[in-house]
Amino acid sequence: MDNVGDKKTLRPSWLIGLIFLFCFNPSQALGKEVAIGVFAYQGEHASTSDWTPLISYLNQALPEHRFRLENHDAASLHQAIAGERIDLVITNPGYYIAMEAAFGLSRIATLESSGVSAAKALGSAVLVRSDRTDLQELSDLAGQRLAAVAPDAFGGYLLAAQEMLRNGVDPETDLKEIRFLGLPMDQIVEAVQQGRVDAGIVRACVPEQMVREKRLSSADFRVLSLRQEDPFPCALSTPLYPNWPLAVTRQTDPVLAKQVAHALLSMPQTADGMGWTVPADYQPVHDLYRALRVGPYAYLREITPEGLARRFWPWLLGALLALVAWIIHTVRVEHLVLRRTAQLRDSLSAREQAETRMRDSQEQMEHLSRLSVLGELSGNLAHELNQPLTTIGTYARTVLRRQDSGRLTSEAISEACTQIVNEAERAGGIVQRIRHFARKRSAVREPVDLVLLAQEARHLVVGMLAHPPEIHIDNQLPASCRVLADGPQIQQVLLNLLKNAVDAGRNLGPDRQGIRVMVEAVDNWVQLHVVDQGCGLEPPQLAHLFEPFFTTKPDGLGLGLPICKTIIEAHGGRLWAQPNAAGPGMCFSFSLPCHDLPT
Ligand code: ADP
């Protein structure tokens, strides 16, 4: 039994008394049989001798039952519990937690030795020969030969194995060799003594007992990583763990369990201090088995999906929760994106509709503005058309006169007709230009020659005025520089600026009539300036110049400049006005982005 002290030293008087009670208890023959399965790790004989006093005590304390001892090795104890053939189990802490996990075993008391806490009663010692000065700590065991009881022996292997692991030596991989010699543990001590192994794991107190029995000299041995745990009386290499428990199975009658627990706690201590106390905490044993991944935690070694799942379930659960959270988040984001996209689509289409409406009304305005310019100039249109018509009439009458007087020669007919055709074409050209200008159309972008546009605008203005001023065009533009624009729209701007410039000088002397149009390139911009010497504008008027309906003319609409500004800005440019720097009058300028195009 993995227990301090030696239960074989139970006091004979106590033992005899219990046997007496057992033999002469008249009621026991009638009692219900209760099987107590014991892990007989030292063999049946030793086990029977160890536990018979307890059986006797229970029979005496609970005469309505007949307690019977059943000795088992690890495998048969397992089967007996599985087959529900035993009611109570006494086993070492390691097997207890294994069967607690497998069959729901539940401890009702823990064995206690005098002066030693039931929770800290079992430990191991790792022995080496005292002449092995190279071995002092458990960490020195790497590459050495080690002897132990069995791979599943609690005090005879596992406790020390865990401590070796903690000291950086994995007993499964870092040793030169490990030999499992079984019980009794004396064999392990002998193997160390004879140098067949470098170190041996034995249950704590085994060396002290052997020294007491003169089978071993304390001078010959040393305990590795020696630790002393007060009041534990023996040398240790490991921490201490709880003592053996007595446990009930799932099938045990609860009343019986209660009676047994009560009897155990009331049991008088034996002469050598053995007794039972309240169940100890076996969590350290669980921790040990989990760290070594043995017993109920052997699955931690399995790389099966189930093993991995059992091992990493907290992580898997966390990952699953994170996944669920992520899915919820993604779905939510997706939903929000869809909703937002729909909103954006709606607002975009609303904006497009508004823009279309705006474009339509702008085009309408431009058209009206063109008509308005024409309207203002139309008074002079009659005069302009009158000239060719008069010439045509004159030539026609000359032909008629000559015919009447018989002086009509074929040369005279030919000259008159040529002149009539020329003048008719001139009149047709005037009408054509006006119709072209007044036509309603949609905006386009194409390379335009600003100077050419300025010349055409000049032609149109001059052609429609009775006394046109001199309009000088000053071209300082590099040949490669073109603007992408809507030609008729830019021409409309030019026409407006020229008309305003003409209006500004209308009532002034001839020296104030001249107008200068200058086209130049500034950085990446083309700038066009219309400079007049007219009446100019006062600063307060300048501030409102581009506001719709601002006009100083009795018949003005005040829409020309705002429309010009809109047109220029729609081309990515700017329209501004300032007083003429070189004299009286104003300078109206606009800029447009310059494109270096192949000429
Ligand atoms: P409208 O010609 O119908 O008045 P515009 O928007 O073309 O409308 O012009 C607004 C006003 O700006 C004009 O009434 C005039 O007072 C002023 N203006 C425009 N160009 C000139 C200029 N070159 N010199 C002085 N004043 C000008």
Q: What does this protein look like?
A:
The chain has 599 residues and is α/β, with parallel strands linked by helices. The protein has 4 domains: 12-119 and 243-292, D-Maltodextrin-Binding Protein, domain 2 (3-Layer(aba) Sandwich); 124-223, Periplasmic binding protein-like II (D-Maltodextrin-Binding Protein, domain 2); 354-437, Orthogonal Bundle (Helix Hairpins), CATH 1.10.287; 443-596, Heat Shock Protein 90. It contains 15 helices and 19 strands. A 6-stranded mixed β-sheet has the order 2-1-3-10-4-11, with helices on both faces. The two termini are 110 Å apart. 34% of the residues are buried. Bound molecules: adenosine-5'-diphosphate. Adenosine-5'-diphosphate binds next to helix 13 and helix 15.
> Mean pLDDT, nearest integer?
86
Read across the widest sheet, the strand sequence of neighbours is 2-1-3-10-4-11
* Total strands: 19
Unreliable spans: 1-30
- In whole angstroms, how far apart are the ends? 110 Å
Largest sheet: 6 strands, mixed
Secondary structure category: alpha/beta
Quickly give the CATH architecture of the largest domain: 3-Layer(aba) Sandwich
Fraction of residues in helix? 40-55%
Instruction: Specify the overall morphology.
Output: rod-shaped
Strand content: 15-25%
Overall tally of structural domains: 4
CATH topology of the largest domain: D-Maltodextrin-Binding Protein, domain 2
Q: What small-molecule ligands were found?
A: adenosine-5'-diphosphate
CATH class of the largest domain: Alpha Beta
Backbone CA Rg? 59 Å
Number of helices: 15
Question: What is the CATH H-level superfamily of the largest domain?
Answer: Periplasmic binding protein-like II
